[in-house]
Amino acid sequence: MTSDIILYDIPSKGRQACWSLNPWKTRLILNYKRLTYTTHFLEYPAIAPFLTSISMPPNPASLNPTPYTMPAIRLPDETYIMDSKAIAIALEKLYPNPPLHLDSPILARVEELWPQVMAALRGVVMPLIPRNILSEKSIPYFNETRQERFGMPLEQLEKVAGGEKAWEDARPIIGQFGDLLREKEKEGPFLGGGEVGYADFVLVGAMELLRRAGGGVWERLVKEEEGFERLWRECGEWVQRDD
Question: What pTM was estimated for this model as a whole?
Answer without folding.
Answer: 0.96
